[in-house]
Structure formats: structure tokens, C-alpha cells
Amino acid sequence: MALEKNVKSVLLLHGPNLQLLGSREPEIYGTATLLDHVATVRTAVEKLGWVLADAQSNSEADLVAAIHDARQNHAAIIINPGAFTHYSWAIHDALSAYNGPIVEVHLSQPLRRESWRHVSVIAPLAIGTIAGFGAAGYELAVAGLSHYFQSQH
Ligand code: DQA
Fold it and tell me: Is residue 80 over pLDDT 60?
């Protein structure tokens, strides 16, 4: 990585339908937009002296490609995979080949919802999953990563 040793680049990924946040089922997902969440994560990451890259896609292929790219370019991934959480073995396998810490985030708590949301094929690859705290979950994800990296020293 071309970055200075202690400057970590974090990749924030969002899966399908999450570009609609703010207007999509606000009673479940809240009123903050995707841009709001990205700004929250950017602020939290920059407070730590790290940098943020972000992407949203409705396409599994785009997300897989972004995860492949992260192998060389990002020290950690925060991912809200949307519905891909529950069945995308392609995203699972891409994350499995990733060499840094992964944090899974959900605005809602999938375990309180329909039974098909109770399975996450991503969770076994994550150092932690944050779900059910709405927008606050993104700051918690960055805090979790910060603790993780401190504990590595
Ligand atoms: C979600 C939960 C998923 O079950 C759902 O498909 C989403 C959003 C969340 O943030 O709560 O699209 O990942």
C-alpha cells in the first residue's frame, strides 16, 4: 500500500437498494440518506487519521470487484451488503479471499424480521456484526475497527 504505515484506508461498501435510503421504508431503515451515512463514516475515520473510500452497487459483480481491489488498497472493509447478506456466496468468497478485518453493518436487526433474513453468509467472515442501531451502527463499526487495530499491537 502506498499509504504511510499508520494511515489506514477503509473501504465502505453498500449493496442493493441502499442508494434509496432516506426514502426506502423509513420506518425500518430511518430517514438518513446513503450520503449521510457515508459522511458519518468519513468523519469518524478521519478523526482516527485514516482515509475512506466508498461504493454502492446493486450489482453483485461490482461488489465482488471492489472487494478484490481492496486486497491491495484497503486495510479494512465495512460492508452493509443489503439483501446479498442472506444468500450471496460470491460476496462471501470474495470477502474470504480478503486479508484484512471486515465489519458487517445493518441498520435494522435482521434477526427480528422475516426468517429468510436470519441467515448471514457474511457474518462468519466478519470480526463483528453491528445490527439494529440504525445510523449509529456506522460509528460503532468504526469504533470496533479502531479497537481491533489497537489490539493488534
Ligand atoms: C439491511 C437488512 C437486509 O436484510 C436488507 O435486505 C437490506 C438492509 C439493513 O441495513 O438493515 O437491504 O442490510
Answer: yes
